[in-house]
Amino acid sequence: MQVAIIPAREKSQRIRNKNLVNFLGKPIISWPITMAKRSKIFDKVIVSTDSKKILSISKKFGAEVPFLRPKKISDNQTGIIEVVNHAIKFLEKKKIRFKYVCCIFATAPLLKKKTIQQALNLLRKGGYDFVFGANKIDSKYLRSFYIKNNKLYMLDKKFYFTPKKPYPSTYLDSGQFYWGTKNAWKKNKIIFTKNSNFILLNHKKFVDINTYKDLEKTRQIAKKYKI
């Protein structure tokens, strides 16, 4: 049995009402809800929210919202694992049996069944804890640095000199979804472990929406590919 959990808290920092923002005529959260429902992959599609407005809209598009998430785990300091585990515990108390959980982001309007199914297949066959979508990025960023207290620090000093061998390939979480076994969600504090894997996504189609610029870029992608 598979369960989809879509986190969608009320407040957002950089985009006002991020999880309800208009995306091609509908609330952005409606897109992943509809995809998950139509995919027939999930026995339950649950939205975890602290907002009555999000609750109402999510139900309108077919999701279950069996609880309002407590405010203490609805701030920007709360990690995604804690949010998913709250939903898992709720389902377990209801004696609902399931093995796999997919956390789908409310701001992943371009996600399709094919991608979700591909990741689930990899999770099952590989015996991984987690499988997620990632975009390939330029390896030169291994030489990145940051400033702290007016001092410069490299992220990793071993990449200071240009190596004789090519840099290893580098990837970035695409901010679309995380598949995991129920046990992995319960026992791990982070998703990126040695027993995690990913499927490569097209960076031209999948954007992690954190700013209005990201949102507009995703709108243009949707129009371009007639999604």
What does this structure look like?
- The chain has 227 residues and is an alpha/beta fold.
- The chain has one domain: Spore Coat Polysaccharide Biosynthesis Protein SpsA, Chain A, CATH 3.90.550.10.
- Helices cover 29% and strands 23% of the residues.
- It has helices at residues 30-39, 52-60, 80-93, 113-126, 182-187, 212-224, and strands at residues 2-7, 22-23, 26-27, 44-48, 100-104, 130-137, 145-148, 151-154, 170-181, 196-200.
- The strands form 3 sheets. The protein has a 6-stranded mixed β-sheet, with helices on both faces.
- Strand 2 and strand 3 (26-27) form a beta hairpin.
- The longest helix is centred in the middle third of the chain and has 14 residues, at 80-93.
Order of helices and strands: EEEHEHHEHEEEEHEH
Number of strand elements? 10
What would the CATH topology be?
Spore Coat Polysaccharide Biosynthesis Protein SpsA, Chain A
Q: Taking Cα atoms only, what radius of gyration do you get, to the nearest Å?
A: 19 Å
Q: Report, as a whole number of angstroms, the end-to-end distance.
A: 29 Å
- How many structural domains can be distinguished in the coordinates? 1
Count of runs of 4 or more consecutive helical residues:
6
Overall pLDDT level: 92
Tell the overall outline. globular
Based on the coordinates given, report the CATH architecture: Alpha-Beta Complex
Q: Superfamily at the CATH H level?
A: Spore Coat Polysaccharide Biosynthesis Protein SpsA, Chain A
Largest sheet: 6 strands, mixed
The side-by-side strand order for the widest beta sheet comes to 4-1-5-9-6-10
User: Structural class, please?
Assistant: alpha/beta
